[in-house]
Specification:
Number of helices of chain A: 6
Number of strands of chain A: 6
Helix content of chain A: 25-40%
Distance between the termini of chain A: 25 Å
Strand content of chain A: 5-15%
Shape of chain A: globular
Radius of gyration of chain A: 14 Å
Oligomer: homotetramer
Structural class of chain A: alpha/beta
Largest sheet of chain A: 3 strands, parallel
Order of helices and strands of chain A: HEHEEHEHEHEH
Largest interface: A-D, 32 and 32 residues
Chain lengths: 163, 163, 163, 163
């Protein structure tokens, strides 16, 4: 998860994360729009042979979709689809928490007690989400490689079965 | 699309349709529950090597999912997810229109003017949906093989790109 | 519930129904758009002092709302909001079943086993919905006055508490 | 908006806010559950004659509803309904940001650029939401009375028309 407009370093990070997730054999699910973290993470994944990317879009089929998305799910529900993204992910990784859309996804993920990782989040975001009661507590990671380590050692998601 | 409880002939039909869709290189998307047409169509698809099945579920991740579903999208939105199924499908095929859930999906598909095929529908369903104004007009098919012919000749969906 | 484009007789019927519902002390909930049955039913209700009309809209707050709606609920979910309309109504009345949007609402209402009345529906709609398995069975009414009688005698909804 | 489990001082604050909003002639919309800030704000509103309270619930009609809610809208969409609450409110007031559900609503409100007030929020919440880019900037208030002043002077919502 991540913003459609973000800093170049966040995009690089998202691209590398997408690649590492695909190399580890996992499906990469994003908001599917042709912008920002969504596109970068999917592009990273699609640089790996045999990868699979899923986009859960805020629009119907008339809306724009990233060319890096293999499978588009059209909700036509705007930001309400953020709840679907979170529930459909075995692990929610926020690449930066630079905008309110991503913040809503982190909050929904913690509310639903999904495993959640804050990657490269600003101190204010970490301070806010890690002190919140009534939900899960997010992991913190400085690099995409650290995210993979957390998923493998703490969350223990199996590789996706090959198709 | 189809009912969770239905006649044996509808299940056979759904299974064959799933297999034919997968053989034609298309992704099979259903409501994802371990029952009825959803499970039968996915099982048919999974009898084909390299197939991909998607389930868009009414529940969150705590709910039951068909073991024939490769990719589960958890909406936790009950029947409101029917709108997502319809918008995310290049062609909507109703395997029988035996229950109100399927009827709602056919109606939503026509409203959104998605290509829609009624497979083995009772005369009352055909009469109702084919005379309705303000939306698309469904195709009719007697057999799964006829559905494939309609998709290839009338709707012209390209094969899914191999992953 | 009813179509945004419909016959003049359906509009008259919707207007009278809205008035009778308001006179009976009930809240009138529609899809809230400034068109067709939605607007006519709300206008009928608002001709009664002390009435309350609720619109559950497919758009966000930037979309058009009928001036006859007292309270607008903005879903920004397109037709997925039909599921909300149905679940939020003590009785679902379809004023004509002339379009696929209304058909989806009737189907969702039967699926959820909400009390449902088909007012002035064509024979094909009645034949279809009354023979469907796996959900409730709709009442039929020829006139708005007959709808009120059904609600009072069969469904037994209490008057809304005065505010 | 606010948590279902929260500190006594937050409940008092929510109750007073509900009362002041109703006295100012506004409709009070909450998540509608019989708990926490939702119930307290509605109870405060219902202590005022002629008030109107709306609950937009995560459940269907089988779920629990606060007895202080006049009009229940049943979404059966879980936390995805938070997007509806935010879009349907002329002003979003968060009574404390103590849990992730409320945090998601504040984030969605800022994303949609709805006028948003943080009432009695902890410093970490204020620091997080006020430095976020790509959305609106929330107002801050220490007391319910200050919220009313902000709405009247900054947001300028007209009184709801009497019904």
């Amino acid at each position: 998860m991540g913003a459609s407009e973000c800093q170049p370093s966040t995009l690089e990070s998202a691209h590398r994360l997408g690649r590492l997730l695909a190399e580890a054999g996992w499906v990469v699910l994003t908001g599917g729009r042709p912008a920002g973290v969504m596109e970068a993470a999917c592009a990273g994944a699609k640089s790996v042979a045999g990868s699979l990317t899923v986009g859960v879009l805020p629009t119907g089929p008339e809306g724009p979709v990233s060319a890096q998305v293999d499978l588009a799910v059209f909700t036509a529900m705007g930001e309400a689809r953020n709840a679907i993204n979170v529930l459909s992910s075995d692990v929610v990784v926020a690449c930066g928490v630079e905008g309110p859309g991503t913040a809503s996804e982190v909050a929904l993920a913690l509310k639903a007690r999904r495993p959640t990782v804050l990657l490269g989040a600003a101190p204010a975001a970490v301070a806010f989400f890690r002190t919140m009661a009534g939900g899960g507590v997010p992991y913190e990671a400085e690099t995409p490689d650290a995210v993979i380590e957390i998923i493998q050692q703490q969350v223990r998601i199996p590789r996706w079965r090959p198709i």
